[in-house]
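Reference record
================
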Amino acid sequence: MIGFDLLSKMWSGNHQAEMKELIEFLEKIAGQSPDQADALAQFRHALVHGYRLSVRKKKGQEIFTFQISDQAGATLSIEEIKQKVFQVN
C-alpha cells in the first residue's frame, strides 16, 4: 500500500500528495471504482498508521473493517461483503 502511495505522488507530481491524490490515482490508473478506491485508501491508513485491519475515517467517523483473502481467481482487489466490511484479495 505504501507503493501505491508513492506511485500516486510521482504520478501527480505532488510529493506532499494526500488522500485526494491517492484516491484519484487508484481510480484513474489502477482502474478502481470510487468506492473501491476510497476503501483501498482506508485500508492503507489502517495498515500504515494503525498496524491493524480497521480504521475510523476522519470525515464522517465511519469505521472500515478489512479481512484478507488469498482466494485464487478473485476478480476484484477489494469488495464490500457487508456494510463497511471489506475483503481485500
User: Anything to note?
Assistant: DSSP finds three helices and four strands in the chain.
